[in-house]
Design brief:
The protein is mainly β. 0% of the residues lie in helices and 47% in strands. The strands form five sheets. Strands 4-5-6-7 form a four-stranded antiparallel sheet, with no helix packed on it. It has a four-stranded antiparallel sheet with strand order 8-9-10-11, with no helix packed on it. A four-stranded antiparallel sheet has the order 12-13-14-15, with no helix packed on it. A hairpin with a 2-residue loop joins strand 12 and strand 13 (130-134).
Length: 220
Amino acid sequence: AATAGPRTGLRLLVGGERLQRVDFDTGAVAPIRLPRLARDEWVDALAVVRGHEYAATAGVSCSFERRRVVVIRGNDATHTVTAATPSDFVSDETQAWTVVDPGHQLNPLAGGRRVALPAGFAPAAATDGVIVGNLTQGMDPAEIGAVRSSNGAVLPTRGVGLVLGAAHGRYVWSAGCGPSTHGRCELDSASVSGRHMHTYRVPRPPGSPTGLLSPDAAVR
């Protein structure tokens, strides 16, 4: 922080080529020890679930691939939470999961039975026990799908496009707003029950394939 202000008490986990814990009020940085990363491997996803912290790594060989998921304990993140190499990682407010193959199964990291996902389903985000993503990979635009994490049931959804984020029982997606798009574009929001909630008009395409949803219904 450049100037004194009210303390927030916030601490941030920051990934990338390393993993760090940053004190928002002071700017102090504490490194978190990771397993040795491959040259093309980086921390690309972080989750805090009921006091448990996780980091997921990914890499690029011939294509993007998930490498491992580790649990963060203080300033150490060298413990891999599952022996199986995950094909994906997703979390909501109360749970974190990996997707393991063969079988394309949703594996809860806190324990419990695995649930089979629809073939080809690519998770993007989760909220209220519902995994949201795309039902058809490689299609443009791709159909959005939602799956109940407890039993794998496919729920009604709206729209086609790219899911940017999910929280507080709703998800946001973009359609026709790729990096090559110019000018204004629209983001849409729906509840996990399939009810359309809001359309956001933004001055330019989102520069990141992920977004954050706050409790006040704003999108960042």
